[in-house]
Design brief:
Layout: E1 2-9, E2 14-18, E3 24-27, H1 29-34, E4 45-53, E5 61-68
Length: about 70
């Protein structure tokens, strides 16, 4: 699935992406590290993988991988 980088904090390595419909989806350091990235800039096109919905908290799905979109 593709998305656009929206926020990124280099201290925590966490941030959020925007899906093509404009829905923001957060990611944590584990998802960022799984993609092997060193830096992410808002506006970059990325590829993400979504995990199953999180129970008891956020009703949305969680990002399990963030990496750069390549063609």
């Amino acid at each position: 699935m593709q998305a656009t980088a929206y926020t990124y904090d280099p201290q925590t390595r966490a941030g959020s992406v925007l899906l093509d419909d404009g829905t923001p989806v957060p990611f944590d350091a584990a998802a960022f590290d799984a993609g092997g990235l060193r830096l992410l800039r808002p506006g970059q096109r990325v590829r993400i993988e979504l995990g199953e919905p999180v129970e008891g908290g956020d009703a949305g799905r969680r990002v399990t991988l963030v990496t750069l979109q390549t063609f």
